[in-house]
Design the sequence.
């Protein structure tokens, strides 16, 4: 199950399928759903209240919207609660949650702890405890951080990793560095090519592009190397250049690379 | 498709008092805001770049370890103007507003000591964005800066920060808070206890979901805040009115990828609905091809091939080097064609919205020096389609 945070009925940018709170089958072994706090809350009320039909007027009214907005972190907690339900539902072997970007992800992952600390008793406290236990369970949950090979993105990813591990007691999976420019040239090749002082305009242009690519690949490789010094497991995802926008081909290529990295790690 | 209208960022930065950079995450919005600030200072203006993002990106982009809640001057020896930067602290801005609008010391202390306010006010619906707009207004009033450049947090759903004031006031004036406050207005927390034991099904549902303590804390907070909401509302309306004036410009920052460009469509619709002045779009990391590349078949002449093979020595395979050279060229042209097609497919590009394309640099931008290079690319009047990608 792939879980995303998207507006209802928005098409998933890579899978091209309209998302909704109810799971849709993308292909035989892959379902997709989009979660939001209010839908998760409605589902929870239906499951826990006697005669849930009596509450439909409330669940569809503005009071519920205002309530979720008034109780900070409540919406995020409900989303994580839905994840908890999916994890404990035996229908799925694996749940992949496409979490928000770095700053928001850190806030979201902190919500169960903050709730447990701020609310000492009651159902909110107990549900937050269960969710926190799921997130902290090494056998159930791993945080996979994805970053571009850029100074700021890598630093933010490192900080998120340290925060998740040290402050939230979460367990980290591999860190994936995406769109790493493959290095095609050696430094002395570029120097020799640049020293060519004649040739067609096309050749001059090609040499210019080769030089720029060399620099970019060097810079990307330095970021990956720096990360490898900090993190035990870094997966490098080379930039894939396709002749046309083809999300499916991109997914297949990335999946093959990541699967090979996992297989390599398994074999040690 | 006709060449898009060029966005003249120099004219924009010279004329505007507020420039709001918005866009989704990971498109270079913070670096763009920093570069615009640098450009303004280079052109003789006193600029303040403000970030709302809790991440430290703006500080990093400006070569600093950290940024504080107060403007910090950035040393730019060659600039005719000045550049300062700051990172918004939501809690402190919220505190300052409460100081301003609390009717008396008791009301102020009640809010400051409320557990709900202390722990969770940072994430109250829209509070971060609302406080950011408040800070923009406050800095504008000081008249210390000629231009404020606002780096907004990545928006998941259109323009969260424009919607923030309305969301906040919907909340304060909405049925849920009224329901919470009704018993309090009659008899304080004792009334609340009585009321919740009565038959109000709505409150019972919320209590079952959250527990009594949560509802009681929320009630305390909203009751103390009730007397101040009129002041908050009036101020937020003034902020929104300022944003609608011609002295403000919204710049949409994106990457030339379908998902990012689609987001811009939504931003446009939202800004138009709110009557906000749109400056144009900055498209970052555009792979560019030049006129020479148009219709290229990646072909080298026999003479070119011989030259390339001639540079190799025993360690290098000349024929193989030619192949790699052609692959790098082909990749660049393919990426440029994809970026161009993605841009041309957007409604806004076809509608003539001014665009500035920033070329994909051949290195990462993360220092003041890089920001200066970025600023130089923003200054270029010639559009990136005729530039090279190399810095």
Sequence:
């Amino acid at each position: 199950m792939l879980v995303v945070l998207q507006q209802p009925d928005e098409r998933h940018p890579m899978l091209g399928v309209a998302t909704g709170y109810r799971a849709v089958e993308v292909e035989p072994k892959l379902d997709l759903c989009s979660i939001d706090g209010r839908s998760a809350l409605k589902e929870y009320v239906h499951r826990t209240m006697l005669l849930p039909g009596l509450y439909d007027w409330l669940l569809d009214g503005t009071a519920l919207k205002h309530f979720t907005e008034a109780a900070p972190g409540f919406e995020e907690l409900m989303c994580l609660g839905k994840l908890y339900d999916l994890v404990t539902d035996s229908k799925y072997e694996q749940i992949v949650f496409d979490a928000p970007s770095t700053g928001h992800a850190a806030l979201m992952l902190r919500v169960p702890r903050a709730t447990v600390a701020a609310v000492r008793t009651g159902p909110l406290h107990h549900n937050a405890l269960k969710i926190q236990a799921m997130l902290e369970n090494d056998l159930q949950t791993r945080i996979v951080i994805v970053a571009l090979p850029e100074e700021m993105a890598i630093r933010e990813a490192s900080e998120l990793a340290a925060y998740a591990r040290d402050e939230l007691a979460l367990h980290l999976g591999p860190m994936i560095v995406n769109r790493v420019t493959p290095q095609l040239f050696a430094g002395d090749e570029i120097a020799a090519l640049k020293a060519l002082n004649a040739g067609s305009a096309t050749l001059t242009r090609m040499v210019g592009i080769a030089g720029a690519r060399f620099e970019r690949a060097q810079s990307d490789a330095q970021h990956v190397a720096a990360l490898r010094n900090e993190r035990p497991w870094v997966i490098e995802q080379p930039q894939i250049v396709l002749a046309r926008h083809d999300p499916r081909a991109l997914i297949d290529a990335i999946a093959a690379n990541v699967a090979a990295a996992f297989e390599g790690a398994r074999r040690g | 498709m006709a060449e898009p209208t060029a966005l003249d960022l120099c004219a924009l930065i010279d004329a505007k008092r507020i420039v709001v950079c918005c866009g989704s995450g990971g498109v270079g919005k913070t670096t763009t805001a920093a570069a615009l600030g640098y450009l303004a200072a280079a052109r003789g203006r006193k600029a303040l770049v403000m970030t709302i993002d809790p991440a430290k990106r703006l500080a990093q982009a400006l070569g600093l370890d950290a940024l504080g809640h107060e403007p910090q001057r950035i040393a730019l020896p060659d600039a005719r103007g000045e550049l300062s930067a700051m990172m918004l602290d939501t809690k402190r801005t919220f505190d300052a507003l409460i100081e301003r609008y609390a009717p008396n010391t008791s009301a102020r202390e009640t809010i400051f000591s409320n557990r709900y306010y202390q722990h969770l006010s940072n994430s109250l619906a829209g509070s971060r964005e609302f406080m950011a707009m408040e800070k923009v207004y406050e800095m504008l009033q000081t008249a210390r800066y000629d231009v404020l450049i606002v780096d907004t947090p990545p928006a998941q759903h259109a323009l969260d920060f424009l919607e923030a004031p309305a969301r906040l006031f919907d909340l304060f004036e909405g049925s849920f808070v009224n329901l919470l406050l009704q018993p309090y207005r009659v008899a304080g927390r004792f009334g609340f206890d009585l009321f919740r034991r009565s038959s109000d099904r709505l409150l019972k549902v919320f209590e079952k979901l959250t527990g009594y303590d949560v509802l009681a804390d929320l009630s305390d907070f909203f009751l103390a805040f009730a007397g101040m909401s009129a002041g908050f509302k009036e101020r937020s309306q003034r902020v929104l009115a300022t944003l609608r004036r011609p002295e403000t410009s919204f710049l949409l920052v994106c990457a030339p990828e379908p998902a990012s460009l689609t987001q811009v469509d939504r931003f446009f619709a939202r800004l138009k609905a709110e009557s906000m002045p749109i400056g144009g779009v900055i498209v970052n990391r555009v792979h560019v091809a030049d006129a020479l590349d148009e219709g290229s078949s990646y072909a080298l002449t026999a003479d070119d091939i011989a030259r390339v093979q001639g540079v190799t020595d025993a360690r290098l395979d000349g024929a193989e080097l030619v192949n790699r050279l052609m692959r790098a060229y082909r990749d660049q042209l393919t990426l440029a064609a994809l970026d161009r097609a993605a841009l041309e497919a957007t409604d806004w590009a076809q509608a003539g919205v001014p665009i500035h394309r920033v070329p994909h640099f051949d290195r990462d931008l993360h220092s003041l020096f890089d920001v200066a290079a970025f600023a130089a690319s923003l200054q270029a009047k010639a559009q990136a389609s005729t530039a090279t990608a190399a810095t």
